[in-house]
């Protein structure tokens, strides 16, 4: 069976991707640390780069490669490389391109652990970091002058402001700055930054890509040249590899990604409408389809701010379908009150630095029935007067 894959939608490509041994429709989990060779010549050819079979699972594994190939397809990149976590993907990408004395320009309200990576690990190594609002990144064509790497999120974390990526990518290209974006929120279903001029896409695959809250993983997608550099330097030498079983779970997640994102979007659209009509909700942060060029949908992670008629701890405890916890993108609905994150022990974090309101509440809308979720939310609100 052959298909002209150029003409197929992502959902079809992701569902149809496998034909394994014995007619299996899923990839085998190749749980082997090393791979042997039939002859001296085959071994030498591989070491000399004249063939490309797997040698050792730290750098290459067939199950991981199956996931990487799907991600490259989904993001319309040439190649992908999997990692043990989103943070391994982010740190390994940055370390492959940045050295002491270089400057990173980072969007405000980036994921808190990305901020900590910059402040606690890279700054002490002599890397300079500056933070910029989305408006400044979009509107100042010379902001990225002298910058080695622009670290972007669209939308950014916690306050979910979207960015005009083609515009920022164009400014970066003019100044020779490499652009890296965390696309975990939109997923390849709702946004393909490589097609908008961005150089490198990173994902926490622990979120929507896994979709089942059972895996911590990351992945990077880009050109062959940039992925080879990340693979040869940071994957190989820092060693944060994706495990075969996790890669298997991620290929399973990808098959339903399109269907899940549509369901998350439908629920999120309803929540945005209804939250916006509640007198106690002062702001809703959730960018929808076409709010910026290239954004095709609204995902299930959003936040909103409450006025002082609502007691946030009481609201949190009155909810039953929404559970209290970190992470997001799974089947289950979650809440994360900003004041819990702001209270994180003994440090200045990005939420404090960039002034997130203590009345903000982040919610991850899962795959439950939307009317059940809304009824739970309304009932909890009615019990939460301050
Ligand atoms: C969770 C998350 C990460 C980190 O990913 P891990 O898989 O937890 O290491 C990075 N970026 C964003 C936006 C996230 O939500």
Automatic annotation (TrEMBL):
GO biological process: transsulfuration
GO molecular function: carbon-sulfur lyase activity; pyridoxal phosphate binding; transaminase activity
Keyword Metal-binding: no
Gene3D superfamilies per record: Aspartate Aminotransferase, domain 1 (3.90.1150.10), Type I PLP-dependent aspartate aminotransferase-like (Major domain) (3.40.640.10)
Keyword line: Aminotransferase, Pyridoxal phosphate, Transferase
Gene Ontology CC, one term: cytoplasm
Coiled-coil stretches: none
Modified positions (N6-(pyridoxal phosphate)lysine) in chain numbering: 207
Requisite cofactors: pyridoxal 5'-phosphate
NCBIfam families named in the record: PRK05968.1
Family: Belongs to the trans-sulfuration enzymes family.
Protein name: Aminotransferase class I/II-fold pyridoxal phosphate-dependent enzyme
């Amino acid at each position: 069976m052959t298909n002209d894959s150029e003409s197929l939608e992502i959902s079809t490509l992701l569902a149809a991707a496998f034909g394994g041994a014995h007619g299996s429709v899923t990839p085998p989990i190749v749980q082997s640390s090393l791979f042997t060779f039939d002859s001296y010549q085959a071994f030498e050819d591989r070491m000399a780069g004249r063939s490309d079979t797997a040698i050792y699972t730290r750098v290459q594994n067939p199950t991981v490669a199956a996931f990487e190939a799907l991600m490259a397809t989904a993001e319309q990149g040439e190649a992908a490389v999997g990692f043990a976590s989103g943070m391994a993907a982010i740190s390994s990408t940055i370390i492959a391109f940045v050295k002491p004395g270089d400057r990173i320009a980072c969007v405000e309200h980036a994921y808190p652990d990305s901020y900590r990576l910059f402040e606690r690990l890279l700054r002490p190594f002599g890397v300079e970091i500056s933070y910029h609002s989305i408006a400044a990144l979009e509107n100042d064509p010379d902001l990225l002058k002298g910058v080695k790497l622009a670290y972007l999120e669209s939308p950014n974390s916690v306050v979910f402001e979207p960015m005009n990526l083609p515009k920022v990518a164009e400014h970066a290209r003019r100044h020779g700055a490499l652009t890296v974006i965390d696309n975990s929120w939109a997923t390849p279903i709702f946004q393909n930054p490589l097609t908008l001029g961005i150089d490198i896409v990173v994902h926490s695959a622990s979120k929507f890509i896994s979709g089942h809250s059972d895996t911590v993983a990351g992945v990077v997608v880009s050109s062959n040249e940039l992925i080879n550099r990340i693979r040869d330097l940071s994957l190989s030498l820092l060693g944060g590899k994706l495990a075969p079983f996790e890669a298997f779970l991620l290929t399973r997640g990808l098959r339903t990604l399109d269907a899940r994102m549509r369901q998350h979007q439908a629920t999120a659209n309803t929540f945005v409408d209804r939250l916006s009509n509640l007198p106690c909700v002062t702001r809703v942060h959730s960018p929808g389809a076409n709010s910026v060029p290239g954004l095709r949908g609204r995902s299930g992670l959003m936040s909103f701010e409450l006025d002082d008629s609502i007691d946030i701890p009481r609201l949190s405890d009155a909810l039953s379908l929404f559970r209290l916890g970190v992470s997001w993108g799974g089947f289950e609905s979650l809440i994360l009150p900003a004041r819990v994150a702001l209270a994180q022990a003994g440090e200045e974090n990005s939420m404090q630095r960039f002034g997130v309101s203590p009345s903000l509440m982040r919610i991850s809308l899962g795959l439950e029935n939307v009317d059940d979720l809304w009824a739970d939310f309304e009932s909890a609100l009615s019990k939460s007067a301050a």
